[in-house]
Each structure stands twice: as structure tokens, then as C-alpha cells.
Specification:
It contains 14 helices and twelve strands. By secondary structure, the protein is an alpha/beta fold. The chain has two domains: 155 residues, Rossmann fold, CATH 3.40.50; 167 residues, Glycogen Phosphorylase B (Rossmann fold). The strands form two sheets. A six-stranded parallel β-sheet has the order 2-1-3-4-5-6, with helices on both faces. Strands 9-8-7-10-11-12 form a six-stranded parallel β-sheet, sandwiched between helices. Helix 1 crosses helix 14, helix 3 runs parallel beside helix 4 and helix 7 packs across helix 12. It is globular and about 65 Å long.
């Protein structure tokens, strides 16, 4: 089957984990998978004329197309899949206009109704699509991890400092900036702590030392494996409910215990006392960090349990098998029909 995926860019995190990550597995099953950025001129200049003959399945990732473009695509493409892993029908948590956006919501509704299949990254997103179209054509495929890229953290007992780790982008770093008071409190109460920030820009704190590592795909797994505890904090809102927990999965793949607030998918990924701790108040944060900081054996045990959970439920081979089940629903050699 000839598959083309339209993505924001080859380097975008959603392309790397939700399309490119599955490409090798799908190719071993006999599919051809081409990834194209929808931001390029190719999208309009070359895509439309060749759709009817050169593509069996078109995957659009996250993009909310204008109605005229979507209608033209729908008249030409054999089978259309819409994949999304964020609350793209809303503005982000930090938008000064607020989260509600009627234009985005209307475009999202049009996208999911026009698609033959809708692939959602978590249960909350699946439910949003279910409410707008036939639930039978909506499936959940979580973001998945290639464990072969991740080495286990060592959790050495003789290290002088305990290293918290946070990985993300400059847009999500704003979440840590929202809790700078909590992080500074941790630094004051636990002077052995250090926070490794793996990002495209640094974080500044007054009382918690920062070990800034510029993000790189080549070094991110090594930078995580040198840490002791993974942390994540999300604002409790609709945008965060759409997050698919990539940083938490990366921590778990590295064998790091996770401390996160009980928001969105984090409530399902982190198993309290088994793979980490769910914490919401400053006292809960301090107690969890203090317990893990003083017990390397506990860090190792919870980290290994997290690694096993990723292997069982979020390994990239699982995601590829789910995609194959979706693709098996596509008609073979069907003629293009207007929708």
C-alpha cells in the first residue's frame, strides 16, 4: 500500500514519534511510506494532481486545513486518515486570548467528519472526536517509544548530587516557570538536588541549581540516563488533557522513577508507589522528592517497573501493529470517490 503522511516537518516531535517511528515496521509489512511537510510548496503544487493515482492512503497529522483545501483533498484521495495528539481544537494553556477558539473547533469538526479514520493519541482526544463523528471510525493509538534507543539509568548510590530531569520544548518549559516557587523550595529544603533541563532554552531559578543541556535527538537519551528522577508538571486544563505523556514515557523508558502532578494522561501513566508518585501540593512534591533522593534502591526498583510498563504497553512495535490494523481497513485499489 502506498502511504503518504503530511506532517508539520520531519523534525517535529509528533512526526518523529507518531509517523517516522513506525515507518520501518510498516515497510517490513510491504507498505511504502512517504513523509512530506504540509508547510512546503509541494503540498499544493504537486500533491493534488497526483493523488488519484499515486497514493492509496493519505495521513494528515494535526493540521487543521481550510475547508476549500480539505474539500479538494477529499474529492481526490482514496482513503484519508486524520492523526492528532494534542487538543488542537483549543488554544494552548498559555495563550493570552484564553483556550476557547471557535474557528479551531469548527475546522477540527470538519477534519474528523471528512476523514475515513481518525487516530487519537489518548482517550480524552478520542472522546472529543467520538462526539463529532461516527465513533466506529475513531481509534486510540498512544505515542510509543523505541526502547532500543534508551539505556537504563545507573542510580549509583555514591553520587554527591541527586539529579532531577525535565525534557521538553520552550513552549512547555513555561509549565516549569509557573512552579518556580515550588522548585526553589525544593532546592532550599534539599541542597543535594540539581535539575537537568533538556530543552532548546534554559531555565533560571534562584535556589535550585540548573544543569542545562541543549536538546538534541542524538544526545537526549544519554542526558536522561545520567539523571535520577524524572519530573513533569501540567496545568489542569483542556489543553493539558490532550497531552500524550511523551516526557513521562521517556523517563520510564530510561528507568527513571517519575514524579508528576495528577493531570491528564499522567494519572494513567504513573502508578503511585510502583513507577513513581502523583503529587499536587508542595508538601506532596517535597515528600516524594525527599523519599526518592534518599533511596537509590527505590529509584532503581520504580524505574525498572516503569521500563517494563513501556515495554508492555507503549513499545513502538505495539503502535505499529495498531497502525497495521487501521490500514487493513483501507480499500485495496478502490477508485477515488467524491465525499
Amino acid at each position: 500500500m502506498r502511504i503518504t503522511a503530511l506532517v508539520k516537518s520531519h523534525e517535529h516531535v509528533c512526526c518523529r514519534y507518531r509517523v517516522a517511528g513506525f515507518r520501518a515496521h510498516l515497510q517490513t509489512l510491504g507498505h511504502s511510506v512517504e513523509i512530506r511537510p504540509w508547510s512546503s510548496g509541494w503540498f499544493l503544487q504537486q500533491l493534488f494532481p497526483g493523488l488519484a493515482t499515486s497514493i492509496d492512503v493519505l495521513i494528515i497529522q494535526r493540521k487543521l486545513l481550510p475547508a476549500w483545501q480539505l474539500n479538494q483533498l477529499r474529492r481526490r484521495v482514496r482513503w484519508l486518515i486524520y492523526d492528532f495528539d494534542d487538543s488542537i481544537f483549543l488554544h494552548s494553556s498559555y495563550n493570552p486570548l484564553g483556550q476557547d477558539c471557535p474557528k479551531r473547533f469548527a475546522q477540527f469538526r470538519h477534519m474528523v467528519q471528512a476523514a475515513d479514520m481518525v487516530v487519537a493519541g489518548n482517550a480524552f482526544l478520542r472522546d472529543q472526536a467520538d462526539a463529532l463523528t461516527d465513533p466506529a471510525k475513531v481509534v486510540r493509538i498512544p505515542t510509543c517509544i523505541d526502547l532500543s534507543r534508551y539505556t537504563l539509568a545507573r542510580h549509583d548510590a555514591d553520587q554527591p548530587r541527586v539529579k532531577l530531569a525535565w525534557i521538553g520544548s520552550s513552549s512547555t518549559l513555561r509549565g516549569l516557570e509557573k512552579i518556580d516557587g515550588l522548585l526553589n523550595r525544593l532546592g532550599q529544603r534539599l541542597p543535594e538536588l540539581e535539575l537537568r533541563v533538556i530543552c532548546d532554552r534554559p531555565l533560571q531559578l534562584d535556589h535550585l541549581p540548573i544543569d542545562f543541556r541543549p536538546w538534541s535527538e542524538a544526545t537526549e537519551t544519554r542526558d536522561l540516563a545520567e539523571a535520577d528522577i524524572g519530573i513533569s508538571w501540567l496545568p489542569d486544563d483542556g489543553w493539558s488533557a490532550g497531552k500524550c505523556g511523551l516526557k513521562v514515557l521517556q523517563y520510564m523508558a530510561t528507568g527513571l522513577p517519575v514524579i508528576a502532578n495528577s493531570v491528564g494522561v499522567q494519572k494513567h501513566l504513573v502508578r503511585p508507589g510502583e513507577t513513581g508518585f502523583l503529587v499536587d501540593t508542595p508538601n506532596e512534591w517535597e515528600a516524594a522528592v525527599r523519599q526518592l533522593a534518599g533511596d537509590p534502591a527505590l529509584r532503581r526498583r520504580l524505574g525498572l517497573a516503569g521500563r517494563r510498563a513501556v515495554e508492555s504497553e507503549y513499545q513502538v512495535t505495539n503502535g505499529a501493529a495498531a497502525w497495521e490494523r487501521v490500514l487493513n481497513l483501507a480499500p485495496r485499489g478502490a477508485s477515488t470517490a467524491a465525499k
